[in-house]
Amino acid sequence: MVSVEYSEAIVEVLEILKYSEDNIIEKIPKKLIEFWKRNKSTTYKPNLDHSKSINEMDLKKKTRSIITMIYLNYLCDDEEKNKINLILKDNEEKYQQELREKYNPDNIFKKYNQKQEEAENEVTANVAMVEYKESIFKKIISRIKKFFHINFL
Q: Per the confidence metrics, is the pTM higher than 0.70?
């Protein structure tokens, strides 16, 4: 069972293949096309403008990935495969670098510690010294205790 997103992308790919030349379709394995036909979405209707090139069409991300896979595995020559693989490798390295920067545990803990320090500084800044004033009755009682030298609670 394939995901809804993938099944909708399959519909778009099959729609593009309908308008492709026969020599292109012949290079794609029949089993793969049959698999796509079995797993395509029955409810999704693509709205593709075939007067535009594939690059100009508003395609799903998965559709673009499938078309890239088709082109890389079945349609291009070795030299072009190497170029595409380099581009894909470079893109993957950039993506992994972004993930490392975004989710680096050291940086996460640094940010957490900085936020915690800022919160502590804010709390200490908000806490002001309050002068304790003894009530008049307590003053009187304490003077009486001092006069009689009484030291208890």
A: no
**Residue 40 φ/ψ, nearest 5 degrees:** -75, 160
CB atoms within 10 A of CB 32: 13
Taking only the tens place, the pLDDT of each residue in 4-45 is 888 999 999 999 988 888 898 899 999 999 999 999 988 988
- Exposure of 59 by Cβ count < 10 A (0-12 exposed, 13-18 middle, 19+ buried)? buried
Task: Tell me if 41 sits within 8 A of 11, measured CB to CB.
Answer: yes
